[in-house]
Design a protein that fits this description.
homodimer, 60s Ribosomal Protein L30, Chain: A, 334 residues, Hydrogenase (chains A, B), alpha+beta, Phosphoribosyl-aminoimidazole Synthetase, Chain A, domain 2
Chain lengths: 334, 334
């Protein structure tokens, strides 16, 4: 590394984060880089379990469409869902800053509980620490989750094959823009709500219907582009996006222009990308479109043989190879 | 609550922490107060699992006898061991402060990995977030753990019965004093090393030998007294300690006098308390004393019928009922 201290860009979901992970964190823990999924799949006595963890440092704590509590539950559930698992149990670690209003804490906890109930998971253990004022920022939440991987389900990012179709479960880039708009006090009317939501039900519906899901990824930090880049690297495929097909809400596109962002680099917290073999694409889309939370699902591209890369085919027909930003674009959006 | 903001004392392991937990956090999550163990025991498809989480905010990051990385691994493993579980998998959530030297991060991660290897557990998933300088303190670590509870093992704090003997697995109060001495730059020579260690092997040895373990508790925040208070409340027993039998190292006792602390309110991170029926006490002690990490195990007291309380029987024969301190005594020791 050329830098010798941690920088904000190390947490932004871009190249610097990938570098920190690949060069410092994973080697230290003896984990090969490409084997680092959102959730680990583990052989337990009675079958396979998925296990995951996430820390949430979003600022502000409360934002249109959600808060840090809902986000923590959804983020953890979605990581489990990306391994094809049925989420069951969560743990909740709180790092509270001295001076946090107890009413804010109550509000966050009520959100955690409501989101957990809606999603059919249980908070089974927790821990609370308090740090001095100026050593935290209100509340940081660490959630871990465990779920059961149904027999026969085997989902790995490397399984994508040339010809597979890439689907997005709904409009992209909304969460990151919602957070930034709230933080920068953009006076949007109506405000852009975060897409924070569980995708576990939609994934379970695909699997239950026997759709041969090849790979799943939730486009969180770094947005759809970072998620697709990981899928491209893991599978060795060239992933070609049809830029005109990518679903982005008009208000999100407008706010992105004001903020100088690309919606495809902006995080979602209630969306997933799924690769399926071409013959199964129409059925998979129909299953998703029949559910309210994934009614906006569309095909956004296709896997091709070739150098692993993410390519955007623009409306003009021009193809542009995308690269990850260094990462300082969107700090603390989750 | 009479206060309307979070205070440091809410994190100190004393009465204020118990109040925050019982009045704010557990009710919000729908968890009954007495049902909040260190680790949850869960019915999974192939048997019972234990699951736990802990956040670590210790200051300084490096201290005699350990660092935040070893502490995180040991703390989580020990919580699982307190449910009688065999620890298997850990997750690691890092909240890094902008400006943290990468070499410090490397050192912490190397400790995590070394401790995990020593303890036979695997770090299976992780997450890294970065916050601005002044919104964290170097590194905060959240670890979660999952283990398997062997068939037939059923350990709950409420199971203590009058007549049971209370054992301590070694000298008490050392970790808290080690941290405070390091933080206050007490020039102790040699320095007092933290007792940070896994107790999972010792617990497994007791269970494998068929010792009818009634209850286990690791005396972390709040020290032995807080742990015993929880056992007393959960079991409805009066727990009477023989003050002259309680193992405290001379250097710890000396530093406690300088720092104005009671060693029994000071945390351990490599000790446990165990209640066993009287006829099994001698054998349990022999099993513990035969292992290097629990060679200092001794009987420290006994459960009696009566009002749930923790009683210290002093050298003079006088009995003193102990109460928890409010909690501001030892912030950020784990």
């Amino acid at each position: 590394m050329t830098t010798d201290v941690v920088r904000l860009a190390h947490g932004g979901g871009g190249r610097m984060q990938a570098k920190l992970l690949d060069e410092v964190i994973l080697p230290a823990l003896g984990i090969p880089a490409l084997a680092a999924p959102d959730a680990a799949v583990l052989d337990a006595p009675g079958g396979r379990l998925a296990m995951t963890t996430d820390s949430f440092v979003v600022r502000p704590l409360f934002f249109p469409g959600g808060d840090i509590g809902r986000l923590a539950v959804h983020g953890t559930i979605n990581d489990l869902a990306m391994a094809g698992a049925r989420p069951l149990w969560l743990t909740l670690g709180l790092i509270l800053e001295e001076g946090l209003p107890l009413d804010d804490l109550r509000r966050v906890l009520a959100s955690v509980q409501a989101a957990a109930e809606e999603c059919g998971v249980r908070v089974v253990a927790g821990d609370t620490k308090v740090v001095e004022a100026g050593r935290g920022d209100g509340v940081y939440i660490s959630t871990s989750g465990v779920g059961v991987v149904p027999e026969g389900v085997q989902i790995t990012p490397g399984a994508i094959r040339p010809g597979d179709v890439l689907l997005a479960s709904g409009d992209l880039g909304r969460h990151g823009v919602a957070i930034l708009a709230a933080r920068e006090n953009l006076a949007l009317d109506p405000p852009i709500p975060s897409d924070s939501a569980s995708v576990a039900g939609a994934v379970a519906a695909l699997l239950a219907a026997g759709v041969p899901v090849r790979a799943l990824r939730d486009p969180t930090r770094g947005g759809a582009i970072a998620a697709l880049k990981e899928l491209a690297d893991a599978s060795g495929c060239r992933l070609v996006l049809d830029d005109t097909a990518i679903p982005v809400r008009d208000d999100v596109r407008g706010a992105c222009e004001i903020l100088g962002l690309d919606p495809l680099h902006s995080a979602c917290e209630g969306r997933f990308l799924v690769a399926v073999p071409e013959p199964a694409a129409t059925r998979a889309l129909a299953i998703l479109q029949a559910r309210p939370e994934t009614a906006g699902a569309v095909a956004i591209g296709r896997a091709e043989a070739g150098e692993p890369a993410v390519i955007r085919r623009l409306a003009t027909g021009v193809e542009r190879r995308v690269i990850l930003p260094a990462g300082e674009q969107l700090p603390r959006i989750c």
